[in-house]
Amino acid sequence: MPRFRANLADLTALQARDEIARGALKAVELAEACHERIAEREPGVEAWAHLDSDLVMRQAEAADRFRASGRAIGLLHGVPVGVKDIVDTRDMPTENGTILDEGRRPRADAAVVERLREAGAIILGKTVTTELAVYHPGKTRNPHDASRTPGGSSSGSAASVAAGMAPLAIGTQTNGSVIRPASYCGVVGFKPSRGLISRRGILVQSPTLDSVGTFSRTVEDAALLADAIAGHDPRDRQTVLAARPDLSRTTMSRPPVKPALAFVRSPVWDEAEEDVRAGFTELVETLGGGIEEVELPSPFERAHALHSVVMLADIARSFSRYFEYGRDKLSGRLVGMIEEGRTVLAVDYAAALDWIEVMNAALEKLFERYDALLTPAATGEAPVGLDTTGSPTFCTIWTYCGAPAVTLPLLVGSSGMPVGVQMVGRHMYDGRLLRTARWLTEALREEGQDIKVVTGVGR
Q1: Do domains 5-252 and 261-458 have the same CATH topology?
Q2: Does domain 5-252 sit in CATH 3.90.1300.10?
Q3: Distances (CA, A) of 408 to 113, 183, 201
Q4: Is the domain 261-458 a CATH 3.90.1300.10 member?
Q5: Which terminus has fewer CB within 10 Å in the chain: N or C?
Q6: pLDDT > 70: what percent of the chain?
Q7: pTM over 0.90, yes/no
């Protein structure tokens, strides 16, 4: 009998994978536990766009039969994973958060879903996304306070993990759609380096900015999931032709020397709420000489405007078919973004793409000295109300540059809601970033800090 029988839905992905691998837990038992938690929490959270319990149990039964055969199992064998509803699944609808795609049934899996199946994962269901993964909210509520947003656009993915309905979930980010909801919901959100994970079979918003991300309860689980889905895909030209990373091994290793950290306020610090300011003050004081405050070079003051140029122009192009045949079914905000994107000049768009290389060159110099940059994940706690998904402003620079980022649930705001600390790393040094993130959480524990409460404003 598994050691964790009483609370199987609360197992981390790594715990569940290991218990299944050694035969102490069956995939069917874990799937049943997740279904029980969904039945308990889903009515108040509404994280799921599509659930099919029979399909899930068939996957779990097949996983148990496969393991019993004695054949080699994958990285996520028997572990349930939620998948954002802009990611194609051949056996479930993918409706992209819009009535215009209601009933859409893809013929093939997205690349990340192919790799999840290859790794032995159980596709638990499709999680709610905002409209076409932009800003108009879906039905999902924050699991910690139903009157507040869970963030977006990966609303259901963040909420499902935070509510204990799934140990892992897949999301995407074009501005702040992984990091921000992870911060609001109090889970670990990981946006890998641009080019690490294929976007094939995922709704295209911006070919330059789109990236696949993960939600989990621990940094170790983020590495495990990213390992399962990372790698070159010749049908996504942005992916890098290189050996698939062993993120888990690096993440679980000890840093050879104490990591050097930089606190970066960024050009939008004035948008940080008092909870965030107080939390970072206390965090920096706790880390003492282990962190230095660094100011980004002046070109980064243009990053938000340049990101907007790229995103708006790409949205206008990518969503033109929705605009042409279903404009009246789109939200007013999205219609306005498409119309604005149609006015972007080609010369401005090309220049905005060129500046990405310039800013990454400046970041490279920073990372010659620092292992990671610490900066807010969001402006503050999840806003009250369900008509907004909050501001992505603290994520914009890093998404624009394509740098890897992870948010850690280290702070608590004045209303008792989670507030994330974002850690940014060097491009394609994702394993090092996750190792540093794990080191930081452990260092804070050793300092006697509750991992959920670093800031005193939450007390």
Answers
A1: yes
A2: yes
A3: 25, 7, 29
A4: yes
A5: N
A6: 96
A7: yes
